[in-house]
C-alpha cells in the first residue's frame, strides 16, 4: 500500500482522537462536579456517617452508576436498578433506611467485595428532575457513626441536599450519552491502531501481499463507519 494512503488513514485517525478529546472535555464540564464533590465531603460530617455517594440512573440500561463518592471514582460502582437499594429508591421516588445490611444479601455485598468496604446501614434519598416529573438519581450515605441510627431529621436534611444538586444531576442524566459515544470512539480508535500496527508488520515482510490489501481495506471500512459519529 502506498505511503500516501497510510498518511491519509493516520490523519483521519487523529481526527477521531481529537473528536474523542472534545467529547471528554464536554463531559467533564457537565454537572458542576466541584459542587457535587463539595457535598460529598461535607455530608458525612453533618450526618456522622462513613461514606456518601451520588448515583445517576441510566434509563436505557436500567443500571445506576456512581457519579462521585467518598474514596471512589466515577463509574467505579454500577448496580442494577431492580436489585439494589439505590435502584429501589429511584424506582419508588421515596427515601429509604436499611439496617443490619452486613448480615443480608444484596447488591451492596458485591460492591463491598469490590471496594473493600463493609456496609452495615444506609440511608438513601431520591434526586428528582427540576420539574419533579422523574427521578434521575439518588444520594446514599453509609454506616451511621452514632448509636441512635437515622432520624427523621437526618432524612429531611439529606433530602434538602438532594434538592440542591438536582439541577447538576439532571444535566448529567440528560447528557450521559456523551461518555458512551466517547467510550465507543475509544474502542474504535484502539482497534484501528492495532490494525495499523499489524499492517506495518506485514508490510515489512510481505509488501503488497493479498493479506496486506485485505487488512488495509478493513481499516478503511472501519474508518468510514466511525467517522459518521
UniProtKB/TrEMBL annotation:
GAF domain boundaries: 31-179
Classification via Gene3D superfamilies: 3.30.450.40
Protein name, per record: GAF domain-containing protein
Amino acid at each position: 500500500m502506498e505511503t500516501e494512503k497510510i498518511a491519509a488513514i493516520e490523519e483521519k485517525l487523529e481526527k477521531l482522537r481529537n473528536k474523542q478529546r472534545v467529547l471528554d472535555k464536554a463531559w467533564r464540564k457537565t454537572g458542576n462536579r466541584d459542587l457535587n464533590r463539595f457535598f460529598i465531603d461535607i455530608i458525612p460530617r453533618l450526618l456522622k456517617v462513613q461514606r456518601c455517594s451520588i448515583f445517576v440512573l441510566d434509563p436505557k440500561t436500567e443500571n445506576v452508576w456512581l457519579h462521585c463518592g467518598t474514596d471512589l471514582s466515577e463509574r467505579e460502582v454500577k448496580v442494577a436498578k431492580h436489585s439494589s437499594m439505590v435502584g429501589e429508591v429511584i424506582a419508588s421516588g421515596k427515601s429509604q433506611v436499611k439496617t443490619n445490611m452486613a448480615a443480608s444479601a444484596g447488591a451492596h455485598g458485591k460492591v463491598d467485595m469490590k471496594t473493600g468496604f463493609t456496609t452495615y446501614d444506609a440511608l438513601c434519598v431520591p434526586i428528582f428532575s427540576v420539574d419533579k416529573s422523574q427521578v434521575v438519581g439518588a444520594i446514599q450515605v453509609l454506616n451511621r457513626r452514632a448509636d441512635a441510627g437515622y432520624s427523621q431529621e437526618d432524612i429531611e436534611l439529606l433530602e434538602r441536599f438532594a434538592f440542591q444538586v438536582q439541577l447538576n444531576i439532571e444535566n448529567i442524566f440528560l447528557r450521559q450519552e456523551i461518555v458512551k459515544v466517547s467510550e465507543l470512539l475509544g474502542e474504535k480508535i484502539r482497534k484501528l491502531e492495532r490494525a495499523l500496527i499489524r499492517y506495518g508488520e506485514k508490510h515489512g515482510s510481505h509488501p503488497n501481499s493479498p493479506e496486506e490489501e485485505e487488512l488495509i481495506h478493513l481499516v478503511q471500512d472501519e474508518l468510514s463507519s466511525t467517522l459518521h459519529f
